[in-house]
Amino acid sequence: MSFQAYLDAIEKKTGLTPQELLDEATAKGYGPDAKAAAVVEWLAEDYGLGRGHAMALFHVVKNGATISDKHVGSTGAHRDDSTQLRLDGIAQRHGPA
């Protein structure tokens, strides 16, 4: 699963865009210095997210919307189209659901 696919799955499960969750994390005091365990616990309790999906969002909380170019342009299951993650929601890329 690509990094972007993890964020899209989070949006489908929670009904919130990654940016909305990032804004909520910031309001709760979770920023670049946050501990992964605290963010994972919050997302599990409030949204029922598993560890893998929660860690994907934690990466965005900690590092912003830029990811490594390791899988960009590859053909594997973890391929991402860009080093920039889309946080504005699936509808912004695919039109109305």
Give a quick rundown of the structure.
53% of the residues lie in helices and 0% in strands. By secondary structure, it is mainly α.
Can you tell me about this structure?
The chain is 53% helix and 0% strand. It has 97 residues and is mostly helical. It has one domain (3-85). The two termini are 21 Å apart. The model has no long low-confidence stretch (mean pLDDT 91).
Note the main attributes of this structure.
mainly alpha, 5 helices, 53% helix
Q: State which percent range the strand residues make up.
A: under 5%
Unreliable runs, pLDDT <50, ≥5 residues? none
Helical element count?
5
Number of domains as seen in the coordinates: 1
Largest beta sheet, briefly? none
Q: Quaternary status of these chains?
A: single chain
Q: Report the principal-axis shape.
A: globular
Helical content band: 40-55%
Q: Output the structural class.
A: mainly alpha
Number of extended strands: 0
Question: How big is the Rg?
Answer: 13 Å
